[in-house]
Amino acid sequence: MTQPSVGLDFARIGISGVRLEALFEAVPLAIAVFDGDLRLVNANARYRELTGITAAPPTRLSIYDAFPNALADLTDQIDAALRGATLATAVRIPFQHRAGRRLIETIFAALTEESGGRGILFAGNDVSEREELRETLSRSVAQLESIFDVIPDSVRVFDTEGRTVRSNTQALQDHPAGQPSTLRELWQLDRPRTVDGTSLFMHEHPTARALRGERVRGETLAVRRGADGLQMIIEVNSNPLYDEHGKIRGAVTVERDVTVKTQLAKALEEEARRTAELYERVSTEAERLERMVQERTQELLALQEARARERRLAAVGQLAAGVMHDVNNALNPIMAAAYLLEANAENPTAVRDYAVRIAKAAETGAATAARVGRFIRQEPLQAEREEPVDLSVVSDEVVAMTRPLWAERARGGTVHLECDLAQGAMVRGIAGELREALLNLVQNALDAMAGGGTLGMRTMTTDSEVKLEVRDTGIGMSAEVRDRAFEPFFTTKGKAGTGLGLAEVYGIVKRHRGYAEIESMPGVGTTIRLVFPKSSPQHVTDVTNTVRSRVARRVLLVEDHPDSREFMQALLESDGHQVDTAIGLTDAMALLEQADPAYDVLVTDIGLADGSGWDLTSFARERWPSMRIGIVTGWEPRVGAGADGDFILRKPVRTSELLAQVAGEG
Ligand code: ADP
Ligand code: MG
Question: From the CA of 528, which ligand is nearest?
């Protein structure tokens, strides 16, 4: 090792040559020493490594050749050192090294030699790595900074004193009128409140809390921001910033504008609430309506029931009153006659007279009872008693029977007949009852046509039904009358009516499993239609034959009641018989005696004006034993009365029974 010829007085600073040598090699610098002639006199290993000059010992190399791989000119630095600038500034110079480009901080310093000449010290510090790190760092910082600026949230960094050290672009726009430089100024401008409206103290601010070491997450605040200081809702996150020793150095606060989001959420919430409310209201309304409908229906049903009950009771009352009235009408003369009978018990003529009156009154009562009975007995017929009946034939019969009475019943007017009778209008039932029903309809039609009109009779058949219509061009019925016409004792005819005709029709039709309909218009006319189930057609011939094959009889009919007499006469004549009539005992006896040949049949009423029917029957029985004798009475037939007559008919006489008995079929 050669002694350095440079002018450093190492001995003066207490460093021996050997120790100096060691230091010279140990420092992390490339060092070269040049003498006054600018010739290299000493250099360490790092210099050799840097420059690639390996010649040892260095061969008095000129300073200008000592840095062959420097990529910049060093002359200015060397000149400056030669001029004596000892505090030379470091200049960064790139060197081409075998491992690549290195950046070296170079210093050329003047040295004063003992000889008084000037030497130069070179020191080179390799700063490549440090520089690289610095570059990487600044790139990262630049990246972070652009991220910091680009995020749409307001980001602010505060130091421990609460001063704003950084604000991103968004944060700068929060208060365009004046930038808050501290947390306190920000707080004053923001005037923050919690969502429930409570204003926030400074120390409660999320940033203040972060500066005390708290991590604040998702705090929602209302603040005043923007040029107009409008209220805004922000969501705040704030974090303390620590240094490498865990000491708080500041805080970073990020605020997000959630005004729109909050408004939307609120609107949504409101919408949901309104929908729920609406739903609630709609469903309760629907429930209410349903309940109302139910209640109304109940009310209506109850009302209907009450009305029906009222009507039933009214009908029952009417029926009872009607029966009472008729019974009283029958009882009054009976009681009067019974009283007179007792008073005149000694007088046989008077006794007979009162007895006859009593019998007549009772008959009237019985007739009413029978008619009401036909209304009341609506249960279907017993099969044994039914026969096939042709309604067209029955219609013919009723027309024939009643025709003589038409003009009188229609109060003198002319009645035209329109008949439209179908073939095979067969029903199963009792001919007498059906005839009775039809008779009532015809009588009503005639009553309605005072002054004349047209009477229509029509039968129709369908696959399953047989219909019978009686039509008139009379006064017609009001709706109220039409509704009540079938009620027993309902009449608009005052004393002239009984109110039992249609009630009877109703009962009879019901018993025949049918129904009745009324079509009527006041002032135009009325059609009453009876509808029955159709009977099987095999019986058609049977019946017509039976009806038509009856033997014609010579009949004497004794009856003092003109209606009844005329009716029975018409009925018997319609069946092909020859009928004479008498109104009393005397007449009848005279006719019986005159007759030649004798009558085949005698039909007599019991209560006659001039005597009892029983007297007539015994008289006839004695004289003409083979004569068929029939008694018509309103009384219950006496036990053993059959001895006096061949048949007994109860009033009101059933037409079928009368015809059958007279024909000898009973
Ligand atoms: P009555 O004939 O004794 O009054 P009905 O029972 O036969 O009793 O009839 C009841 C009521 O029906 C009659 O009083 C009348 O008002 C009405 N009526 C029946 N048939 C007719 C008809 N063809 N035209 C108009 N009204 C009628
Ligand atoms: Mg009538």
Answer: 1
* Same fold yes or no, 151-257 and 548-662: no
Burial classification of residue 380, based on how many CB atoms lie within 10 Å of its CB (0-12 exposed, 13-18 middle, 19 or more buried):
exposed
Tokens coding 464 = 């399953």
Give the other-Cβ count within 10 Å of 610's Cβ: 15
Q: Residue 526: which H helix or E strand, with range?
A: strand 525-533
Q: Does residue 12 register a pLDDT over 70?
A: no
For the Cβ of 125 lying below 6 angstroms from any atom of ligand 1, the answer is: no
Q: Which pLDDT tens digit goes with each residue over 318-371? A: 777 777 777 777 777 787 777 788 888 888 888 888 888 888 888 778 777 777
Lowest mean pLDDT among 150-159, 363-372, 532-541: 532-541
Residues paired with 630 in a beta bridge: 603, 647
Instruction: Give the start-to-end residue ranges of the domains of the chain.
Output: 10-132, 151-257, 384-541, 548-662
**Ligand 1 atom 4 nearest Cα:** 491
Cα–Cα distances in angstroms (integers) from residue 631 to residues 585, 586, 645, in the given order: 13, 17, 6
What 8-state DSSP symbol labels residue 500?
A: -
Measured from the CB, is residue 497 less than 6 Å from ligand 1?
yes
Calpha distance 552→587 (Å, rounded): 23
Token pair for 524: 């135009």
Cross-strand pairs, 43: 32
Whether ligand 1 lies within 6 angstroms of the CB of 445 is answered as yes
Which residues, 6 or more positions from 162, have their beta carbon under 8 angstroms from its beta carbon? 182, 183, 184, 207, 208, 211
Q: Which residue has the tokens 């690289």?
A: 132
Residue with more model confidence, 16 or 298: 298
* DSSP-derived secondary structure for 400-437: HHHGGGHHHHTTT-EEEEEEE--TT-EEEE-HHHHHHH
What is the topology classification, in CATH, of domain 151-257?
Beta-Lactamase (3.30.450)
Question: Residue type for 655, please?
Answer: T
Measured from the alpha carbon of residue 527, the closest ligand is 1
Which residue bears the tokens 């999320």? Answer: 206
436 C-alpha to center of ligand 1: Å? 15
Query: Cα separations (Å) of 104 from 64, 108, 130, 283?
Result: 17, 12, 11, 88
Domain covering 384-541, topology: Heat Shock Protein 90 (3.30.565)
Cβ 491 under 6 angstroms from ligand 1 = yes
Pick the CATH number of 10-132 from 3.30.450.20, 3.10.320.10, 3.30.420.140, 3.40.50.10860: 3.30.450.20
Contact 456, 415 (CB under 8 A): no
Per-residue pLDDT of 429-464, as tens digits, reads 988 889 999 999 999 999 999 989 999 999 999 989
Q: Is 179 helix (H, G, I), strand (E, B) or coil?
A: coil
Q: Are 532 and 404 in contact (CB under 8 A)?
A: no
473 lines ligand 1 (CB under 6 A): no
Give the pLDDT of residue 576. 83
Q: Is 322 in the pocket of ligand 1 (CB under 6 A)?
A: no
- Spacing, Cα 485 to ligand 2 middle (Å): 9
8 Å CB contact between 257 and 221: no
CB-ligand 1 contact for 110 (6 Å cutoff): no
* Architecture of the domain whose range is 548-662: 3-Layer(aba) Sandwich (3.40)
What is the spatial distance between Cα 300 and Cα 228, in angstroms, rounded to a whole number?
68
